[in-house]
Amino acid sequence: MKPRKDLITIGSLSDEEINTILDSATAMKDIFTKSVKKVPALKGKSVLTLFYEPSTRTRSSFEVAAHRLSADVTTFTVGTSSVVKGESVHDTIDTLMSMKMDYIIVRHKNSGIPDVIARHCKAAVINAGDGAHAHPSQAFLDAFTIREKYGTVAGKRVVIIGDILHSRVARSTSTILQRLGAQVAYMGPGPLVPLQAHTGIPRFTNWDEVFDWKPDVIYLLRVQNERIDTPFFPAGDYHQAFGVTEERLKIIDDLDLGIMHPGPVNRGVELCDAAMEYRNCLVCNQVENGIAARMSILYHLTPQTQNND
Ligand code: CP
């Protein structure tokens, strides 16, 4: 496999790269579930997490992943940095690169910023979510979770439900699942679901259509209110129309469907409380697998930073 410096989108990866990263994630999961959870693969390397937007899962899981590979990890906290004094992204990166970082993991509200940083510096850059554009590490952990649960991704049917339009997760996860041979459909409020003519992906607007399609997994998304000027629905109305209510959960249970969600979950909006306890709820599996997937991503990237030894 040709060395790759950055991970910005799933679309930029070859099939071989996707499969190699997924296969290695299985080995990585073996490592971090053992009593000694560390390997020296990135010993002496410096990893920086640079998050201009909030995160619980992605940042902490990249940091745990980097520690498991024995890298040194620095957390850049935007809110207490010179960014609040007006420092540009370029100047921040130049400053941090003077500190010889090998990997930069970046989240930003503007699409394209991780790509700009990747072109600007020799560190390996990982897109940890940019605007409504892409979230490739989420896509890897989602594909890994489906493969772990069902033995394969090929042939599985996954409906992604909610605010597709503003969702970087929908974009990246539907891309990787299709590349691995799954069938993907979208369901949600009309204005928030792109037309099939634009994506080639079947588009539903209600649960009856979802159940008729006979999915294996339903994948709920959070409504991205931070990317919408005026909310489309009161939360209760949204839950009744598009969420997993207690009544729908009974059907989901009868049909033995898996439930996924990238988090953070808004209980009572996308999922009722009981859905989080449901036997096929894979939300915690996704979080656990995030570490394995991110260890594998870090392991397979090749920074172009130079050392004098
Ligand atoms: N799934 C996800 O990106 O979660 P965080 O926003 O907590 O990182």
List keywords for this structure.
binds phosphoric acid mono(formamide)ester, five-stranded parallel β-sheet, globular, 309 residues, alpha/beta
Can you put this structure into words, describing what you see?
The protein is an alpha/beta fold. 40% of the residues lie in helices and 14% in strands. The chain has twelve helices and nine strands. The strands form two sheets. It has a five-stranded parallel beta sheet. The protein has a four-stranded parallel beta sheet with strand order 2-1-3-4, with helices on both faces. It is globular, with a radius of gyration of 19 Å. Bound molecules: phosphoric acid mono(formamide)ester. The site of phosphoric acid mono(formamide)ester has 9 residues, from α2. The site of phosphoric acid mono(formamide)ester (CP) has 9 residues, from α2.
Please give a quick description of this structure.
With 309 residues, this protein is an alpha/beta fold. The protein has helices spanning 15-32, 57-68, 89-97, 113-120, 136-150, 168-179, 196-199, 207-212, 235-242, 246-254, 273-277, 283-300; strands spanning 46-51, 72-77, 103-108, 124-130, 157-161, 183-187, 203-204, 217-220, 258-260. The chain contains twelve helices and nine strands.
